[in-house]
Design brief:
With about 150 residues, the chain is mainly α. It has three domains: about 1-50, no CATH class; about 50-80, no CATH class; about 90-153, no CATH class. It has helices at about 5-10, 30-50, 60-65, 80-85, 90-110, 115-125, 130-150. α6 (about 115-125) packs antiparallel against α7 (about 130-150).
């Protein structure tokens, strides 16, 4: 799925300035159709097949999430601040979601894979560089949640 970002950039003409995007994108059309189908399926499942059941989380977690601005913590399956349609009306939230998604997607494809694949493949082969990378992914996630996330919200 994440290879679609490379395909879309190639379609848009990014191959004129970067060799990474010079490939036969027409051979990847099937992948774009799969991604489009997944998006349509996700929309249909979300719209017609969901029950908004709250997740059982501790009162301490609810308090901490409320302090970060998540008023729906413990009341909904997913935080409505990010997943409700109102999230798209806030330019700040929309920008954070789009920019974060772009960085993760593009970085994963530019590196030729993704963080999950790196962890699964590398650690199953007992590779020290993969262990170091996974520790970096985890540390980056912790820093984001504990230091950067409170600044954003």
């Amino acid at each position: 799925m994440s290879s679609n970002l490379r395909t879309i950039c190639s379609i848009a003409g990014a191959g004129k300035s970067a060799a990474f995007f010079r490939f036969d994108w027409r051979a990847q059309r099937w992948n774009l159709i799969v991604a489009f189908g997944a998006a349509i399926g996700g929309y249909l499942a979300h719209t017609y097949m969901t029950a908004d059941t709250a997740v059982a989380i501790s009162a301490d977690t609810v308090t901490k999430l409320n302090a970060l601005g998540f008023k729906s913590a413990g009341q909904a399956y997913m935080p409505t601040e990010f997943f409700a349609n109102t999230a798209f009306s806030s330019p700040k939230t929309l920008l954070i979601l789009l920019f974060g998604g772009f960085l993760v997607g593009f970085g994963a494809r530019y590196a030729g894979g993704c963080t999950s694949g790196h962890a699964i493949s590398g650690l199953s082969n007992l590779q020290i560089p993969s262990l170091i990378a996974v520790i970096g992914f985890f540390a980056g996630g912790l820093m984001m949640v504990h230091f950067i996330f409170p600044l954003i919200f």
